[in-house]
Amino acid sequence: MSLDDHKLRVFCTVAETKSFSKASEIIHLTQPAVSLQIQALEELYETKLFDRTSSAVTLTPAGEVLYKYAKHILALYASAEKEIGELTGLVKGSIALGASTTIGNYLLPKVIADFRKARPKIKIHLQVGNSKRIVELINSGNIDLGLVEGEVSRQKIYREKLIEDELCLIVPPQHPWAKRRDVSILELTNEPFIFREEGSGTRQVIEKYLAKNGLTPQNMKITMILGSTESIKHAVENGMGVSIVSRWAALKEAKFGTLKLLSFREEKMMREFTLITPKNEVLSHAAEEFLEYIKKYPYDNLLNV
């Protein structure tokens, strides 16, 4: 990535988020550094590119013109890199990848490691955040591909189902249910239950499933609300209650026997892992290779513990 390429990316991110602080979060630069990049462009063109008088940051007429060309220039950079890569047959470069928590922490590490064995010259930068953040990073052009859990609102992105994910009940091995394969969702109302925090994708799926079966969180004996899957697993292992997590998140514990995974009798609690890519961007040769790889990857082999 050349320096000018970087300045244009910073400029486009500010233009799209209409905020210097939000842009600095997305591209991992300090706010003064973002301002300096914009200032350098304004000095180059000897004109203001943003109107900072109102509460939001808006593009000036000159800024609008630069934005139109900047998007075009960045797309041309990507096309040039891709075509040269195809010509030389050398697939190298780096891929910026974003993934929501369950996928980023439990599914991707093994997939990325296998991909790197096949394509050692490609570097992968992975950012993990909630689904909303990953969509923001895609929209601002700061990641090439995103992998998210659950619903994605219609924006300037392509969505494609990658795989299905089952949410399972986890209980400690000494629990009376540990010998069973499944339980009824209604049986959960008598058990101390550990919930994820509000706004978590996993919690939204659980609440939807409860509602479908005539239950609300108020019907549950909620003893704890925790902010991460890891803390939930530890609490369940220590006999503090039962909980529901992605099958991917508890594979290791199931393998070593520290947790038991059960399905629900009514129907399995399922959600989708979705692949998201920017609508009007040209993917680099490296990103396309990775995209093809993850679509064909044998995920089921990883689940068989």
Structure description:
This protein is elongated. Helices cover 45% and strands 23% of the residues. The chain has helices at 3-17, 20-26, 31-45, 61-88, 101-118, 131-139, 201-212, 229-237, 251-256, 285-296, 299-303; strands at 50-51, 58-59, 93-99, 122-128, 145-149, 157-171, 182-183, 192-196, 221-226, 243-246, 260-264, 269-278. It is built from eleven helices and twelve strands. With 305 residues, it is α/β, with parallel strands linked by helices. Strands 3, 4, 5, 6, 7, 10, 11 and 12 form an eight-stranded mixed β-sheet that branches. A two-stranded antiparallel sheet has the order 1-2. Helix 5 links the parallel strand 3 (93-99) and strand 4 (122-128). Among the domains are: 1-90, Orthogonal Bundle (Arc Repressor Mutant, subunit A), CATH 1.10.10.10; 164-270, Periplasmic binding protein-like II (D-Maltodextrin-Binding Protein, domain 2), CATH 3.40.190. Helix 2 crosses helix 3 (31-45). The two termini are 42 Å apart. The model has no long low-confidence stretch (mean pLDDT 88).
